[in-house]
């Protein structure tokens, strides 16, 4: 039954990706999309892939700094290989890459999964904060462009109706608040009973290890270096998107503000819980380029080429890291795939 549910879940996510890709290309001239892809200057794309590789190394070093702060030190290459395997896994199993990379690191460097997962949670929180900052900066720098696009192209005549009728939003917010209060009250009333439950106690132990990883950022020895790698990683992401404009005649003249917009909204697309961001990324990037006057055909061609090149890079780097990690840990592919769910319940010694 569990296997069937997993199959249905991934089939649903794959269907969502397929529907979004269909939405991105439906009604368009496929020959025009193909022409844009053929006319691309791929020398710029090679530069973006080199930058992306540097970004992965920087991100791995930042993760190592977090792990070192928990007193569970791991060699850089073990951290890097585990991270790349996680990215590779996310292309097939959405959001499972985070658990898989922590499981692999436990096998290669004896870092408890709970602690490693806590550092990943912190990493994601930091990324969300950076992304929200980028969103704010993007809107401030080019507010008129986005406002016109949203009101004219996205909402159309529905904008005035939405502005007048806020009742559905208020009702939904009230229901969510009541559910949250009810859950809190139920937990408070049954706290003593929960403390006698073995599963609950294991969850508490796991949570303690998770929190140790989450708060690792407060114990960093070199906070300035951590901030530098955070800045460098996102700078690399920005340069990748901006330099990729040079690949296509249609996007060649877009300015740095457009690059920031593509980075921001493309990142939201990649964060969607589908394999490799396929579908959401393409729709978001195509939509934001449309706001800057780029045709849908040119926009989807840009998204396909950029996403495809990064996917190829992750497959190459992640594949090498996967083989290296398996050889070092002495595990097989089947064992690695079967263990993450069990590993996260292991108590911290």
TrEMBL record:
Keywords: Cell membrane, Membrane, Transmembrane, Transmembrane helix. InterPro entries: L-PG_synthase/AglD (IPR022791). Pfam families: LPG_synthase_TM. Its main location: membrane. GO terms for cellular component: plasma membrane. It comes from the Bacteria. It is a multi-pass membrane protein. The chain crosses the membrane at residues 43-61, 128-149, 169-188, 200-218, 224-245, 257-279, 299-324. It is found in: Cell membrane. This is Flippase-like domain-containing protein.
């Amino acid at each position: 039954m569990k296997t069937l549910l997993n199959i249905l879940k991934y089939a649903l996510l794959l269907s969502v990706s397929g529907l979004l890709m269909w939405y991105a290309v439906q009604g368009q001239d496929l020959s025009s999309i193909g022409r844009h892809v053929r006319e691309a200057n791929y020398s710029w794309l090679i530069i973006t892939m080199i930058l992306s590789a540097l970004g992965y190394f920087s991100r791995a070093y930042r993760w190592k700094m977090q792990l070192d702060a928990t007193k569970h030190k791991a060699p850089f290459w073990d951290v890097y290989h585990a991270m790349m395997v996680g990215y590779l896994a996310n292309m097939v199993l959405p959001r499972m890459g985070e658990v898989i990379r922590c499981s692999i690191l436990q096998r290669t460097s004896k870092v408890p999964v709970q602690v490693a997962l806590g550092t990943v949670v912190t990493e994601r929180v930091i990324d969300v904060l950076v992304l929200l900052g980028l969103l704010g900066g993007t809107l401030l720098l080019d507010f008129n462009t986005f406002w016109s696009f949203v009101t004219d192209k996205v909402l159309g005549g529905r904008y005035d109706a939405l502005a007048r009728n806020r009742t559905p939003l208020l009702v939904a917010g009230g229901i969510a608040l009541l559910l949250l209060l009810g859950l809190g009250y139920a937990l408070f009333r049954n706290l003593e009973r929960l403390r006698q439950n073995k599963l609950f106690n294991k969850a508490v132990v796991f949570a303690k290890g998770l929190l140790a990883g989450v708060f690792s950022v407060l114990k960093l020895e070199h906070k300035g270096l951590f901030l530098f790698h955070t800045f460098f990683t996102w700078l690399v992401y920005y340069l990748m998107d901006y330099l990729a404009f040079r690949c296509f005649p249609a996007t060649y003249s877009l300015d740095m503000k457009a690059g920031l917009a593509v980075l921001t909204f493309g990142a939201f697309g990649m964060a969607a819980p589908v394999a490799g961001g396929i579908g959401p990324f393409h729709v978001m990037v195509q939509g934001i380029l449309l706001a800057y006057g780029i045709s849908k055909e040119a926009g989807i061609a840009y998204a396909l080429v950029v996403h495809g090149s990064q996917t190829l890079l992750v497959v190459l780097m992640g594949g090498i890291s996967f083989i290296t990690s398996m050889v070092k840990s002495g595990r097989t592919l089947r064992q690695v795939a079967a263990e993450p769910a069990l590993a996260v319940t292991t108590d911290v010694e």
